[in-house]
Amino acid sequence: MTRVVDIPTSRTANFFSFQRDPLGFLLNALPIGDVVSLRTSSFQPTFIVNSPDFVQEILVHQDRFFRKGRSSGVLRRTVGDGLLTSEREEHREQKRYMTPVFYKERIQAYAEIVREETERLAGKLTEDGPVPMHEAMMELTLGIIARSLFNTELEEDKSELAAAVDVTIRRSAGTIFSPVILPFSWPTPGNVRHKKAIRTLEEMIYDAIADAKRQSDIYEGCMLGLLLDTRSEDGQALPEQEIRDQMMTMLLAGHETTANALVWAWYALERSPNALARLHEEQDRIRSKEERNGERISAYDRYREMPYAKQVIQETLRLYPPAWAILRESEQPVELLGDRFPSNSSFLISPYAIHRNDAVFGDASAFRPERFEDGGSSQWPRFAYFPFGGGVRGCIGSQFAMLEAVLILGTLAANFRFESAPGQGEAIPEPLVSLRVKDGRSMIPKSRL
After folding, report:
1. What backbone phi and psi angles, to 5 degrees, belong to 346?
2. What does 183-229 look like in DSSP terms, one character per residue?
3. Residues near 90 by Cβ (< 8 Å), separated by ≥ 6?
4. What whole-number distance in Å separates Cα of residue 420 and Cα of residue 122?
5. Is residue 37 within 8 Å of residue 5, measured between CB atoms?
6. Do 104 and 412 touch, CB atoms closer than 8 A?
7. Is the pTM of this model over 0.70?
8. 152 class by beta-carbon count within 10 Å (0-12 exposed, 13-18 middle, 19+ buried)
9. Measured between alpha carbons, how far is residue 332 from residues 66, 340, 341 in Å?
10. Euclidean distance between CA atoms 25 and 16, whole angstroms
11. From which residue to which does any coiled coil extend (predicted)?
């Protein structure tokens, strides 16, 4: 018996509904069925995938039949052929040489940088007025990525680079789901702004590459140094363009997603007094322990002593997953759990919608970090909760991203609570390349010390 169900609305109505409110459209499709056909053309049929077992088939068991397709083509305009956009053998080779960047011993070293950069921000926060949290978190995570992976200080250029990242993300998001994709070579105002932003980011990247080649010993142990030392099977160094593409990928995929998740975390905690109190109690307990012992614990050990802060981030990623949609296209006819799909079928998988399934989570729209106690996500089907994707294309930096978000959250929560500035109303999700708070969120830091 088929598990594919036709959507009851027309193709035209679906198109305008999705363009107007992608997240609402996907949530409305969740109860319709496990796989929902949008009744598009037979040449390229489109389906929304709601069932965890179908997600697992596409991302893991039969991933060889699928490509990222349209989304990769659009993102390639900015990041080139990096780990995020490459396919097949090229992706496997890139993942092989990129994996050591996120080995445990390297992540432990990155933890100290996360704490240092976060404490630097905390030293600048005052109760004098509201802080634009999206910009603050973007600049913080951008600085962390630059120091951790490129061994580059960005203190003077953070605002300019963060603004350039914002332009590339908005232009990419607007293109991915556009019915018509204009050539990037056309000098439209949007393409001109996009290319200018790319040049801004490339200037920092190529300066870092040139500096690393001059002072190779300084860059040992960071991603840039690793890329410069990487050799192919025939002994050839990586082309500079490929190094640029990987650095650009990490800049865009490696910090904007974490920054967005943190803004959502502060917003959710403000509306969940009990969760905020538990988070503060955990931070106070760690501070008391350090005072008793007369010494500070390492940043990585501090991370390990913050299980509740980790649960807060996990719950934030459930309700507001940065990767709100995952796209796949079949390269040939494929059978998934008894249902056959033709070549060129498009599949839209939405962690945002799947994570809000009441049948799995119960009161799924509520923010309850304690869901992740006692085994956490192991209590649910494998792909009922997957904020970092899955399979061979799952996020290579997921452990670093979790450590970074938890340490930032805990370090700032130890010193502050954040209140939304008056007059903003409820936060509205904005589905760009990753999930943002629409128009940002101004919050006032209130000292706890």
Report:
1. -105, 135
2. -TTS--HHHHHHHHHHHHHHHHHHHHHHHHHH-GGGGTTSHHHHHHH
3. 81
4. 17
5. yes
6. no
7. yes
8. buried
9. 8, 11, 9
10. 10
11. none
Residue among 209, 206, 245 at smallest CA distance from 80: 245
Count CB atoms within 10 A of the CB of residue 163: 14
271-306: per-residue pLDDT in tens?
999 999 999 999 999 999 989 988 899 999 999 999
Poorest-pLDDT segment among 47-51, 152-156, 408-412, 421-425: 152-156
Angle at CA of residue 220, ends 242 and 204, nearest 5°: 50
CA–CA gap between residue 202 and residue 248 (Å, rounded): 8
Q: At which residue do the structure tokens 């040449």 appear?
A: 43
Cα–Cα distance measured from residue 54 to residue 56, given in angstroms and rounded to the nearest whole number? 5
Going by their DSSP bridges, the two strands 46-49 and 346-349 should be labelled as parallel
Here the tokens at position 210 are 């040139």
| Choice between 264 and 177, residue whose per-residue pLDDT is larger | 264
SS3 131: strand
Residue 7: pLDDT band by 50, 70, 90 thresholds? very high
Q: How many residues does the chain have?
A: 449
**Which domain, by its residues, includes 297?**
4-447
pLDDT of residue 269: 98
Task: Say whether pLDDT at 178 is over 80.
Answer: no
297: its two tokens: 């614990």
Q: Helix, strand, or coil here: 285?
A: helix
Q: What is the CATH number of the domain that holds 349?
A: 1.10.630.10
pLDDT in tens, 46-85: 999 999 999 999 999 999 999 987 778 888 888 899 888 8
User: Do the beta carbons of residue 357 and residue 364 sit within 8 Å?
Assistant: yes
β-strand partners of 329 = 67, 346
What's the rounded Cα separation, in Å, for the pair 343 and 329?
A: 8
How far apart CA 429 and CA 449 sit, in angstroms, is 32
Beta bridge partners of 431: 435
395 in a known ligand binding site: yes
pLDDT value at position 448? 85
Q: How confident is the model at residue 230 (pLDDT cuts 50, 70, 90)?
A: confident
Position 115 pLDDT exceeds 90: yes
pLDDT given at position 155? 67
Residue with tokens 């299980």: 307
Structural domains in the chain (count): 1
